[in-house]
């Protein structure tokens, strides 16, 4: 355990010089935060993880990868964006960790990789041990849902740069996939089905627009009850991002999958286009689903044009799976058995003369 030594002058009882504590960094509070988070980190451990919390590096036994013929490591890093400010205002710190894991690990699973381990970085203006532990609790719970281990992290105290209650989070993750099973654009064929998986809400993108519209323009409050939501605006906006990792992996084990697309910043069309090969086109029919009321509230309140809304928010779709047409029913059955709301939202066609990689057609179902 680290400690802060007493640097007071015996004569005056006052500090005799500058100290880390006087500069605003509380090492003892940091140590307490580590103690509080240990039980949550332990819940994420996989057999391949060596050592415990507190080392300089997290250790993962790579000999476990010997079962692969040609293992490819997949890595990703991300944050949660300005959604953290809503968590700060509401004093809710655990759910934001689910968002972080989802943003990292659902990117990794897109190529068919199994999530292995993750590290986090939490930056605060002042260490409040219970708050930091709550953030890590949420990250650990998210790791359990993604099937990965939380092998380490860093909590940094930045007094003077951040306010005492300000914080931000980021994370990095690693997964593994057999080279022959790598998913992506080269597998996609004409006639493939585009299967949409429902989002749990706004997820963790577009909150700068959401905050601008709902709070700066409409002057709504986080504790305001919204009838369409059946709960407060704050509760709706803090709904954790759904973690699809294990659902996607289950899909690859039960049926043929050609590609996944994680719908994050840029919206449905732009993210889907990232996995569509040259010469092909993804057509997604808006009439196959109804976006949740929160999307309508943002669009209507801010008079946001539909194309602007669609390129900023997920509009109710958090993950896309592209599968052979003959595998679509089996894919839907697997996802249904796992409690995932999913549907056939479109298909892969040959690209027309003036089309791009993906397009939305029709009007949303009412």
UniProtKB/TrEMBL annotation:
Pfam family, one: AIRS_C
EC number(s) given by UniProt: 6.3.3.1
Domain PurM-like N-terminal per the UniProt entry, residue ranges: 69-177
Keyword Flavoprotein recorded: no
Start and end residues of each PurM-like C-terminal domain: 190-354
Protein name: Phosphoribosylformylglycinamidine cyclo-ligase
Coiled coil: none
Keywords: ATP-binding, Cytoplasm, Ligase, Nucleotide-binding, Purine biosynthesis
Segments passing through the bilayer: none
HAMAP family attached to this UniProt entry: AIRS (MF_00741)
ATP-binding among keywords: yes
Main location: cytoplasm
Gene: purM
Catalytic activity: 2-formamido-N(1)-(5-O-phospho-beta-D-ribosyl)acetamidine + ATP = 5-amino-1-(5-phospho-beta-D-ribosyl)imidazole + ADP + phosphate + H(+)
Single biological process term from Gene Ontology: 'de novo' IMP biosynthetic process
Superkingdom assignment: Bacteria
Similarity remark: Belongs to the AIR synthase family.
GO cellular component, one term: cytosol
Protein localization: Cytoplasm
One example GO MF annotation: phosphoribosylformylglycinamidine cyclo-ligase activity
Pathway linked to the protein: Purine metabolism; IMP biosynthesis via de novo pathway; 5-amino-1-(5-phospho-D-ribosyl)imidazole from N(2)-formyl-N(1)-(5-phospho-D-ribosyl)glycinamide: step 2/2
């Amino acid at each position: 355990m680290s400690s802060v030594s007493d640097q007071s002058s015996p004569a005056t009882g006052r500090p005799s010089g500058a100290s880390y504590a006087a500069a605003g960094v509380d090492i003892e509070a940091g140590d307490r935060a580590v103690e509080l988070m240990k039980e949550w980190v332990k819940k994420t451990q996989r057999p391949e993880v060596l050592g415990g919390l507190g080392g300089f590096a997290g250790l993962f036994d790579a000999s476990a990868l010997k079962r692969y013929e040609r293992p490819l490591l997949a890595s990703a890093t991300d944050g949660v964006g300005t959604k953290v400010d809503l968590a700060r205002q509401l004093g809710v710190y655990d759910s934001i960790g689910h968002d972080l894991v989802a943003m990292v690990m659902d990117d990794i699973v897109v190529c068919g990789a199994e999530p292995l381990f993750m590290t986090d970085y939490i930056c605060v203006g002042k260490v409040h041990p219970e708050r930091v532990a709550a953030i890590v609790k949420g990250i650990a719970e998210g790791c359990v849902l993604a099937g990965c281990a939380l092998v380490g992290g860093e909590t940094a105290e930045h007094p003077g740069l951040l306010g005492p209650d300000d914080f931000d989070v980021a994370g990095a993750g690693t997964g593994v996939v057999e080279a022959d099973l790598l998913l992506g654009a080269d597998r996609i064929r004409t006639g493939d089905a585009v299967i949409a998986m429902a989002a749990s809400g706004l997820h963790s993108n577009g909150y700068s627009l959401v905050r601008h519209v709902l709070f700066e323009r409409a002057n709504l409050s986080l504790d305001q009850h919204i009838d369409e939501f059946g709960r407060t605006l704050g509760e709706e906006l803090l709904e954790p991002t759904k973690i699809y990792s294990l659902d996607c992996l289950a899909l690859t084990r039960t049926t043929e999958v050609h590609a996944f697309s994680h719908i994050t910043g840029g919206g449905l069309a732009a993210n889907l286009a990232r996995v569509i090969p040259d010469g092909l086109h993804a057509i997604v029919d808006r009439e196959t689903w109804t976006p949740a009321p929160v999307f309508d509230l943002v669009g209507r309140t801010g008079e946001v044009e539909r194309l602007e809304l669609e390129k900023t928010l997920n509009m109710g779709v958090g993950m896309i799976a592209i599968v052979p047409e003959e595998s679509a029913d089996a894919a839907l059955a697997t996802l249904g058995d796992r409690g995932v709301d999913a549907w056939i939202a479109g298909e892969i066609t040959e690209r027309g003369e003036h089309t791009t990689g993906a397009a939305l057609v029709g009007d949303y179902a009412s």
